[in-house]
Design goal:
There is one protein chain. By secondary structure, the protein is of the alpha+beta class. The protein contains nine helices and eight strands. The strands form two sheets. Strands 1-8-3-6 form a four-stranded antiparallel β-sheet. The protein has a four-stranded antiparallel β-sheet with strand order 2-7-4-5. Helix 1 packs across helix 2, helix 4 packs across helix 5 and helix 6 packs across helix 7. The protein is globular, with a radius of gyration of 18 Å.
């Protein structure tokens, strides 16, 4: 009989996947309670390039894409699905305007959490601070993982993404098991399956931008891989 709490519970469960550190539900509930929902239309900016915005965001529904301009060519840095924590570190850490543009790929809702609220919770909750540290370690891992995926030629990049789409992982996580090992398996499963949701939403030209190739080249490689039976 908790139907009114189900959306909040679902978002908290997704947010738990941002870090290996297992935190009490009450801590993340307090964090999310400081957020104000912001609705974005497709291609609407959450944070625009050149904007100073040190607040913290959590994607509630939809999909956010990070972009930057390189010699008048738009490059895709990455994507953020529901439960993802987003910060412009140029703004938050260095006090400079954001270099990236964070925009919605479809109608999207995010929670905007004021920096003052976030920093206050960091100061008074050691448990929350440990979780944030673990979440940032996850982000650093993702950055290295992204470089691994995008290494090599265009064909190998697409095959790397295909492996993500397959959802194949070693071991399965068990619902109801609160152990750190099980949480780690759940994180790995999420990392290897989230691309399915992204590919359902994002146009092929944006996937090509992420891979650093043209949309026409992406289509050509796809046909080659399908013909050879590799995909």
């Amino acid at each position: 009989m908790k139907k009114e709490n189900e959306p909040a519970d679902s978002l908290r469960q997704l947010l738990e996947l941002e870090a290996k550190y297992v935190v009490r539900h009450e801590v993340l509930d307090e964090f999310l309670a400081g957020g104000v929902p912001v609705s974005l239309d497709t291609y609407g900016p959450m944070i625009d390039a050149g904007e100073f915005n040190p607040d913290i965001y959590v994607v509630k529904d939809g999909l956010i894409r990070g972009t930057y301009m390189d010699k008048n060519i738009e490059k895709t840095v990455g994507f953020a699905l529901p439960g993802t924590l987003l910060i412009s570190f140029h703004c938050y850490y260095s006090g400079e305007p954001s270099y990236y543009r964070f925009e919605a790929c479809c109608p999207t809702t995010v929670l905007r959490i004021p920096r003052a609220y976030f920093d206050g919770l960091l100061r008074r909750s050691h448990e929350f601070a440990l979780w944030v540290m673990s979440a940032h370690q996850n982000q650093l891992f993702y950055n290295e993982c992204r470089n691994q995926v995008l290494s090599g030629d265009a064909k190998s990049r697409l095959l790397q993404l295909t492996q993500r789409l397959s959802g194949l992982v070693d071991g399965e996580w068990l619902p109801g098991d609160s152990s750190a090992d099980n949480h780690g398996r759940r994180l790995k499963t999420e990392l290897n399956t989230r691309w399915k949701a992204i590919f359902r939403i994002v146009p092929s030209k944006i996937i090509a931008s992420y891979l650093g190739i043209t949309e026409q080249h992406l289509s050509k490689i796809k046909r080659q891989i399908i013909t050879s039976g590799e995909l």
